Each structure stands twice: as C-alpha cells, then as structure tokens.
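User: Quick sanity check before I run a bigger batch. Here is a single chain. Can you write out its predicted 3D structure?
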Amino acid sequence: MITTVKKLVVALFAAAVVALPVQAAVPQAAAAAQSVSGKSDIIVYVDGKKVAFSQAPVQKKGTTLVPMRPVFSALKAQVIWEQQTKTIIASKGRTTITLRVGSSTAVINGKNVKLSTPAEVIGGSAMVPLRFISEAFGADISWNAKNRTITIESLEYQYEAERDNEANTEAASPAKPAAKPLTSTELVELNDDKVVMIMTDYGQGSGVVIGDHWILTNYHVMEGATEGEVLLNNGSHLTIQGVAVHHEQSDLAVIRTKEPIGIEPVKLGSWGSARKGDRVYAIGSPLGMRNTVSEGLISNIVILDNGIRYLQISAPIDHGSSGGGLFNEYGELIGITSSGIDDTVADLNFAVTIEYYHLLLEEELEEAKKKPASIAFLPSKLPATLKNASTEEIAELLNEQYSEIMTTQGYADLEKWNVTRDAEGWLVISTVMDPAFYMIYGDKASNELRLWALNLGAELKRMLPDEKIQFLVYYEQIFNAKPRGFETSEVTQTQSGNWQVRYPIIDMQILERLHIKVRD
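Assistant: Done. Predicted structure follows.
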C-alpha cells in the first residue's frame, strides 16, 4: 500500500483551523462568460483515467486551459480559490503554485515564473494552463494532435508502472534458486567498508560506494559545499573532486573522488522487491559516529515531496546519517537514508528508494564518466557579493532563495521581504512568517529556526562584509478586536478599524560576530 503523507498533514491542519472563516468557492454564476476563441473537443487523461470537465477545455495561443478543480483533483493536489483576489493556490507535497486570474506571472514555491497564457474565468469556471500545472507538479504531459488527446502521467503513476513492468519481467524469467537472507553480522561484514563518511565545509553526511571513484549520497549533503573529503573505514581520507550528477527533487547526487577508492561497490537492489514489514539495516554516520549500524522494518512505503517515493523505516538514524545506505536482508542497497521526524518516539525515518538512481542518474552518470575533468562542486545559488546591489535587489534575491524554512515540523513560508537603511546606517532586512505555522509549531521548531537564521547570517556576512545588518522575522496577524496580553508597541490599529499584532520572532544582528534572539 502506498500512502501519500502530505494528504494526512493537510487533513490534520484543516482540523485545527476548521472554525476559522474560509474563502468562498468559485462562483458558478460569474459575470457574463468571456467570448472564447479556439474552443475544442480536447480529451484529457490523467494517470490513465479520462477527466470530466463541466466547461470544455479551451486552446489559446497554443496553450490549453482547463477547469482547475477536476485537473488538480486528478493530480491529487489540494486547491484553494480566493474569490476576493481571484487567486488560485494549489499544493502537492512540497510544491505550492499560486496563479492569479489575468496575470502572466505564476509563483512556484516563492519563485516567479512567466506564463505564455494566464489563468482566466470562462463560463463561471477558473481555467488554468494545463501544461504548466502538470509540469510544475513533476508530471509528464504529451499531446496527440490526431486524436486531440492530452495524456498526463504523474510521478506516482510512472513509478507504479515501472514497478509492475519489473514484476512482470521477473515473473517471465526462468526461476532462480531462492536467495538466503544474511545474518546481521554477515551483512555488516559485506557492506560496512562500502559506506563512507562525507565531510564538507558545509556539514557532515554519509555516502555509499558505487564505483572506484563514485559515491552515491543525498543532494542536500553536497548543497552549498565548495570542498570536502571522504573518510573510509580504514582511516584513509580521499579528496572530493565534485558532484558528477544530481537530481535535487529526489535528493540524490553522485560525487567523484580524486583518488581511487579501492573498495568493491555495493550491490544495487530494487525497491520493487521491498515490502512493508521487511527487515532492513541502515549504515551511516549519525552525529559523526562513523558507520553506525541500526536495524528495523520497512514501516510503510510513502510518497512525499512532489511525488517522490520513500521507504519509511523504523531503523534509527539521525543528523549525519543523510546519504547512508539502507540494505535489505540480502545485503542489497535498496535506499539512501535521507530524513526523519524529530520529537517522536515512533522512529519515523525515511530513505529515498534506489529506483530514483536507476531512473534518473544512472545513464547520466555514464555520460559524466566520459568527461571527468569537468566535474565540479555545485554552483552557488547566491552571488559572491551584494556590495553594489540595491535594497530592492537584495530583497528580491532573499525572496527567491529563502522564501521557506524547512523544519522537521514542516515548511514555514516567508513573505513580505523588505530591505531598508535606517538613520544610523544599519541595513534592516525583514520578512513575515506564516502565522499558522508559528502558532502551531513555533516552540518545537525554535532551535531549527535559530540554526536557519545563523546560516543565513553567515551568508549575509559573506556577501556584505562591511555592513551592519539587522535581520528580523515577524509574526503578523490582523484581528477585528484589540487583542490582550501584548506589549503596547506590538498592537496597532489599522485605518480600517481592525487591529494588527506584529512582533519579531527572530531578531539577529550581524556585526563582527552574530547575535540572535528567537521568541518561542
């Protein structure tokens, strides 16, 4: 059974705010429908099922527009229609899309994206550009001009098809003698040396040897790094040349070492053979404890993060385990340990299935091996300096790169980025956190918010070394009556007669060193 975890998260959150006012639905009796050119008999299939539309799809300037609710439902995305601003907000996994009717710009996870054709209301239905929506959620989309048919396959559907194909292939193959499960000691003897510790100038993680120069790990282990080394079980240190191939969405990367590793690679298994309840073993370096072994079960097979499939495991892992190996009882690598949920006794840990390496990186790696000299560390998403940047340019960059904070409690969205210079010459940077996240998870996530701010502070110090900087993250909320229990300066009356509560959650000052306060 495959569980889509994001649905559970959304359902729980909805239960917490069910008593709050909600936005109105899309009006069915909207203003007179716009005249439509290019109306068509287009048929749309999502994951093999025909989608029924109350308003027929429309083609404009080569773009197909379809009613929003049926297509988002078929793609298993949550959708909200904000009537007042005529804004569509859709989310699936960690991807959130925002479109405004009539606007040629959409927003994906806080980043602006140009649209060739904007969303619009036709016949009382909010119509959205189908290709843009599908690809934003990682789906494949194809057009059959002869049959006037559009076919969309979500990532979940593609991988289910791959698994079924693999199962059919195995069933058609001649029977092989059943493999014998290894004891835990035999499994560790087979694979312990094939799992390594990775140390970079950005952090510490783990990796698995898949070739004489090649190590498979998590993308986030290498993100932001500019140099690093690999530590082997025998005490050897190897220099990392760079990242050969990577896929950010599935959180996988293959790095190359300058020196030969000299260790036999792991045997790659298949996630298709993994079943809920199977015994598994994790080997990695949690908290720097090199090549720690833990044992557990596959607790579930779940879909997270825009359709990415994970093995949920009870084997304990921790910070530093990222990029480590998850092995089945036969000593085969079936996943890369990548994340977990803190503050629980349930051992909710996750490994990216090895199938993503086979499907997304294996062929690309063979091409990279032909040009080893070109392999380098991932390019920085931030500029070397912001010395001559305007306050508007700084605000735009921060909004693009820091629009959300990833925590074990979920994502905290940041908006309303503003950069000003005050009378004392300080550069004051401010933003506003999603109030719902802060009210529900602020206390549990406070240490993670602190670490996030310290990392951002280090980057700001690097890019603006001569500036005095104050960085503020605010809680901000509007009420129809004056709230009690706040400082006088934290509550102000608006021109409309409502009351605004605003106070800093994070207050960081960046001078020759950093100082930070976090309000729980």
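The first helix runs from residue 5 to 16.

User: Great, the batch can go ahead then.
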